[in-house]
Amino acid sequence: MAEYYVPIRNQSYLDMYTFEEMDLPFWRQWFADNWIWSLYIGAVYVITIFSCQRFMKNREAFDLRTALALWNFGMAIFSIFAFSRVFPEIFYLLTKPNGLHAAACKIEDHGMSMAFWALTYTLSKALQLGDTLFIVLRKKKLILLHWYHHASVMILSWYAYQTYIPLLRFVGTMNYFVHGFMYTYYGLRACEIKVPKRVSIFVTILELMQMIAGFSVTLFCLWQYNYGDNGCLISARAITPSAAIYSTLFVLFAKHFRSTAFKQRGKLKSS
User: Fold this and answer.
1) Using CA atoms, how far apart are residues 263 and 256, in angstroms rounded to an integer?
2) How confident is the model at residue 268 (pLDDT cuts 50, 70, 90)?
């Protein structure tokens, strides 16, 4: 368990819902004691998806369009609503003097709404592993980026929650924003609604920008911690694996964007 106390203050920038009340020290301790379960869940996830892929090799693909549409729109609604609850705190902090430092390096002006949705963000990473089952059961192409992204982010989120460093506010807010677009796009495709091909590239660009922004803010926190006048509240247990995973995901997303962009551009020229 991290050694510092996280103060929860009244939110002058956002009205709190009753259901957002939570016991933050309890959940930090719970993840400190049980984060190892994310490794077990990750291992079961990888074994399951590749076992299912082998099982489906000589079988007809399942038609899961209705279930897939409901899944994606459900995730989209969840992400959009969560973003609407966490962004006000980030915006409020960024508008203060030295806003980026206040938002990424200090835990002041932290509200219960952000704390609650940071918890749901962390827990939802295990639920989002279900994305891959739709790919495998529908016999779509499963790429390294997809399953590595899901497994690594889930494990990192569970492991890092106990430290509760301010950087996590940025990570969760960006992720909710991108997922709001991404799941809406996949929901429309599941409904067989024609979406311009450029939208797919746009979604990939958003994901790539998320990796760049996350890695950049991580470097900012490290610089402030080592050389900044006001320091930065970070933890090696969280920031080291975060930097490593962000850098590898950036490479994989960049490679995926390059192949997708050239493929889509070729289709646009030939149409």
Assistant:
1) 11
2) very low
Ordered by start, the domain boundaries in the chain are: 37-270
Q: What percent of the chain has pLDDT over 90?
A: 65
Which has the closest alpha carbon to 145: 230, 233, 262, 257?
257
Per-residue HEC secondary structure of 170-193 comes to HHHHHHHHHHHHHHHHHHHHHCCC
How many Å apart are CA 158 and CA 247, to the nearest integer?
Answer: 19
CA–CA gap between residue 106 and residue 9 (Å, rounded): 14
Q: How far apart are CA 145 and CA 161, in angstroms?
A: 23
- Quickly tell me which residue has 């991290």 as its tokens: 2
Share of the chain above pLDDT 70, in %: 94
Under 8 Å CB-to-CB from 68, ≥6 apart: which residues? 134, 138, 186, 190
Whether 195 and 34 have beta carbons less than 8 Å apart is answered as: no
